[in-house]
């Protein structure tokens, strides 16, 4: 008797689950302040960059050209920097490190604070199961940070492309590399997931905020340090003269080949004198040729995709772990 | 509607060092058992008091029933199913009345409406809130403890639950608000047949409104059943100490003053008339069990196993 009645009531409860829109609206309501701050940050950086590019870039370029015509030295250092490339560098730095702010938000305000002051118990005893709560808590901000990061990346690409000569940074330099591709979006999503996981593990807002930043920052710097090995490099050798890498390539290593093997430490450039003396010096060192190892600019996308893949895999693992922790601890 | 609102079988919860109910004050026992070997059955439609000293495991029991915690052993069923499946039909108000401090009262009610679209009764929520003279535009963080309790109860009641779990619901209300909200609760229970389970360590608070008792002490169930049945099963006696033989009866508490022996016991048979047996009050009964942790518990444990 009890069992029959029980299934009946269970169906009634399951028949009308919480609408997805209801949980979405609740998450938006709860984190309105964070959403506004994020929106303002994206808008502010975008507006600043557009203004710099539209208004000051041409002026900076004209100044630099005038300076060049006057055949002065160090034109790129004295003219272009202050007006255009320096603020663009700041925007790039802020954008590339936005994931730290996302990590702090996810660990602190998004999940940690709710666990600390018990408001999760309010959410979980409304019609929302803990898993659905975490899904909404991750999905809504994920959408928001993805949109914001996409806008930042697209606008930075738009500004950087035609003005890279003025900005004076290369495609492979740390912050520029991150800010110009999907890696940026992968990092903010990963920060969100890692923040959620640390908050669920620590259950305190402030420690979770600190730990999630302390975890995502090294992740970013470790990957940045090993970025060059994420895709096979190109090595060119030559028997006669030094190898020049292609224009805009990311030169990783070059030097002499000693008995056919790369020897970056051989100081072949100290040999000088007459061609005969030079050749004798090189022979003494055992130099048989030269090489250069580099990433051509065409490796930008493979490098981006591999790094984004790694970061997204970390994000997926953190998300799975967060749901697992949650499931183990609630009914 | 099933005839059992809530049932537990050998239910136990042990807390690790971190996870638990950090703010409830009842889980601060380190890595020990907050609740152990808890077996009872609560029929639907009752108003049940969960009574016990601080740290007895009341909050843990209610959190387990609300599906906020996973049991370490045994199981608890709620409205004929597991707590997770019953979530939509169960209301719960935690001891510290957690609410989102950044929202206004009106926004808090909108959250309730969004998260309970099928069951939400906006009118009931508004009625409870406005009875407390609350400004709907006031932020939760500016409210007093009693006002927060009112909002928390409005959220739980507007969900129109079949089972309402309240953890120390009246603790920070003034007597007037307590009386009014208790009246609201009771009329809800009467109108919709809602089962209410509320914990308290103030027995007097519950005596008038509750018809079922669950006495928890030291993490175990000491008494469970209809209050009338429990009172009827016990007797206060006083007799001359040398003449009285308490042996066949289950003694909960006994005291000798001079030649006079007074005791609270569960009679095993008819008591001699000269013992002057009287029916104890609920408070006397509860205090006697709490003072004497070694007294044999009285729970329908054996009948429960056949019922589930």
TrEMBL record, chain A:
Entry keyword set: Membrane, Transmembrane, Transmembrane helix
Keyword Flavoprotein: no
Listed transmembrane segments: 33-51, 88-111, 138-160, 180-202, 209-226, 305-326
Top-rank taxon: Bacteria
Keyword Ligase: no
UniProt-recorded name of the protein: Transporter
Biological source species: Streptomyces aurantiogriseus
From TrEMBL, chain B:
ABC transporter domain mapped to chain residues: 16-243
Keyword ATP-binding assigned: yes
Molecular function in Gene Ontology: ATP binding; ATP hydrolysis activity
UniProt cross-references to CDD domains, sorted A to Z: ABC_DR_subfamily_A
Keyword Thylakoid: no
Keywords: ATP-binding, Nucleotide-binding, Transport
SMART domains named among the record's database cross-references: AAA (SM00382)
InterPro entries hit by this protein: AAA+_ATPase, ABC_transporter-like_ATP-bd, ABC_transporter-like_CS, ABC_Transporter_VariousFunc, P-loop_NTPase
Parts forming coiled coils: none
Transmembrane regions: none
Name of the protein in question: ABC transporter ATP-binding protein
Species the sequence originates in: Streptomyces aurantiogriseus
Source lineage: Bacteria, Bacillati, Actinomycetota, Actinomycetes, Kitasatosporales
